[in-house]
Design goal:
alpha/beta, about 210 residues, Rossmann fold, 6-stranded mixed sheet, globular
Length: about 210
Amino acid sequence: MRNVLRELFPSVEAVSMNNCSSCVALELHKEISQELFSVSPFPRRLSACRGRALTLWDDDFCTEVIKKGRDAGQYPPSIVKEAVRIIDIWNPRPFPSWVTCVPSDTLSCALTEFSKSVADFLGIRFNEIIAKRRQNFPQKSMNSTAERCSNLDGAFHINGSPMEGPVFLIDDVFDSGWTITVVAALLREVGFKSPIYPFALGKTQE
């Protein structure tokens, strides 16, 4: 795969690691307090792999480009190329055979189109299997773990059967980590046993 990607992207000039912070690791929550989720009876212990984010959200250059793309409803090709480049460097094993993404809180389809493009460049499939069941508030407006979990309880559901093999689970911004944790737990709840690799465009500073 590395040789193919180098042929596709011999250089990434618009957005490169010279302009963005180095990619950062993502760590999901390993346990869920069952008392905080009344709609979704998640298992207490979860299993998802460590992930990656394209950049820290406070990085001025990349944050501006990502925000503009989200507002416009489409991320620029340079962001897609940079994401694929970082995935190539990361090279998780076993490598995913498909991609899915967290549904947007807005009407924007930017993240869905971004995820489709990443899947196309990687030569793997995209499956829009995660759907919104109800509209929830932005997680950044929540002040505590209890509020964040309550805000997500019953907000998503799995629409259909997951594909076989490991998956990239993509979100736009990784803040507290609860959104991707809950979505990964939903995949486990329907019997998905393969590795789940989180990937986000940005990660907020702790």
